[in-house]
Amino acid sequence: MDLLLKESLKASYNEQADSRDQSVIQSWKTDELKAFIAALASNPKAHQHTVLDIGAGSGQHGKYLSQHHLDVTCIDLSPNMVETCRAKGLKAEVMDYYALHFDAESFDAVWAMNTLLHVPKVSLPAVLKNIHTVLSEDGLFYMGVYGGKDSEGVWQEDSYIPKRFFSFYTNEDLLKVVAPLFDVLDFHIVSEAGRGIGMNFQSLLLRKKVIVD
């Protein structure tokens, strides 16, 4: 990722840490969390139920997962966001998805809601490979992003300062980009989530594929 782009994104979220910490999880997001927890509970190979929350933000999702008896590790690009996670009693580190400093097969599952939409399209395959590496055999990966149309760049209507970079995919293209590394267990659109912004929310529950080099 371009260093200036990453620093801009970090500045945006540092500035918003306090306000995001005060927000309440929307009902549709709670539904996504519940479905993820149920899928992980039914996975016979997930013994410890360890979860990596990528782009954890203020830790609301991580806290919800931990309250449902999951061993959660949060990472975020923003130091301020990481501090809000730690204030909730969560394990949290300043880290981004371009270099996941964990051993291979460290986690039963990965949760990433509205995180990977900040990855330039040219970089997403490498980021997905990093996630694939830290997942255990048959590990589950939740990826939720806004999209439904094809575009990439800084969102000029963004209320955050600095304005953030977004990548959006059509449904077909998003499924294609995850296919080399993951099996799609579920893909659905949460239309409620995209009201007012003219986009869909694309929800994917994925399982790690075995890749033979």
UniProtKB/TrEMBL annotation:
Keyword Methyltransferase attached: yes
Entry's Gene Ontology molecular function annotations: methyltransferase activity
Any one Gene Ontology BP term: methylation
Pfam families to which the protein is assigned, alphabetical: Methyltransf_25 (PF13649)
Keywords: Methyltransferase, Transferase
Keyword Ion transport carried by entry: no
Domain Methyltransferase, chain residue ranges per copy: 51-139
UniProt cross-references to PANTHER family, sorted A to Z: METHYLTRANSFERASE
Name of the protein in question: Class I SAM-dependent methyltransferase
